[in-house]
Write the structure tokens for this entry.
Amino acid sequence: MHTLMDPPSKTTGSCLKCGATYANSHMGTHLARCHGAGDALHLVITGGGNTWWMHLAARPTTTLRDLDHHLRATWLECCGHLSSFTINGVPYEEIDPDADFSWYSAAPRSVAARLTKVLAVGSTFDYVYDFGSSTELDGRVRGTIAAGKRKITLLAQNAPIAWACAACGGPATRACGCCQALRCAPCCDQGQRCDCFDDADEGWLPVVNSPRVGVCGYEGPHAG
Ligand SMILES: [Zn+2]
Ligand SMILES: [Zn+2]
Ligand SMILES: [Zn+2]
Ligand SMILES: [Zn+2]
């Protein structure tokens, strides 16, 4: 794990209600028991297979737009790129009324749709943020579960990955946005850098707990 190109294939995380730790494959069963039955959708969102993952409870009034905002705020938003859900082959996007969709194989529908209108228990969907340096996520409705007070409640997520500095093996805190090399701050500051940029301070991004780590200008969740 000395470069972002080599992420762990699976990770563990903790239930935010009781603190119990599981791999993603067992977290769903735990959360269903820990939170109990309800009318919220239990969503599982993954990036890179089982490397980055989130379990969410979404109340029945939640729209795809709400989910898009949640994913941007917690995992993705760098510079306001476009995003899209695909459900049963149909794209759902923020619709520009002036856009020409004649070249699309399927015209996109609006993300104003409620999750309960377009997804059911067992449904899967794809999500992409940024059509250039894309971050692609997979989504699944695992079942129903007791809802939190908010439209979307985070139930559990993978713990931060222990990336290692490629120069000294210590904990990495910076990633090169070009070659995905990892460094700790002391090694970086002592000149142990990659050859991607002439300016020594250019191109390094903070190592954050997100499938978008080291991509474009992503620096972690924004406040609000
Ligand atoms: Zn729990
Ligand atoms: Zn960006
Ligand atoms: Zn180091
Ligand atoms: Zn580099």
About this structure: The helical segments are 24-35, 64-76, 115-118, 185-189. The mean pLDDT is 93. The chain is about 15% helix and 30% strand. Residues 165, 167-168, 170, 183-184, 186-187 surround zinc ion (ligand 3) (CB under 6 Å).
